[in-house]
Specification:
Layout: H1 8-25, H2 30-37, H3 41-49, H4 57-66, H5 71-78, H6 81-87
Helix pairs in contact: 1-3, 2-3, 2-4
């Protein structure tokens, strides 16, 4: 299966997600949060820097749980309003 290139919108969404998660991590180390969420520090680094724009749902859910962030909040903060209207 060939993966299509990401759209500019997907890339922008990934950057917003990464920035938000980086802020939510606060003073905790990247390695601490990654380990607690069950992912590698490199995966979290890629998400936070926007190099992994479309992480798996289970990865996002694990990070949200570890950082005490609701998935609804992540969707509201990271997705453009038009995307939320289409999914609701």
């Amino acid at each position: 299966m060939v993966r299509l290139p990401l759209t500019p919108r997907q890339i922008a969404t990934g950057k917003r997600l990464g920035e938000y998660l980086r802020r939510a991590r606060g003073e905790r180390t990247l390695a601490d949060v990654a380990t607690a969420a069950g992912i590698s520090p490199e995966t979290l680094r890629k998400i936070e820097t926007g190099r992994l724009s479309t992480p798996a749902f289970t990865t996002v859910a694990a990070l949200a749980t570890e950082l005490s962030v609701s998935l609804d909040e992540l969707a509201r903060l990271c997705l453009p309003t038009t995307d939320l209207e289409q999914t609701g």
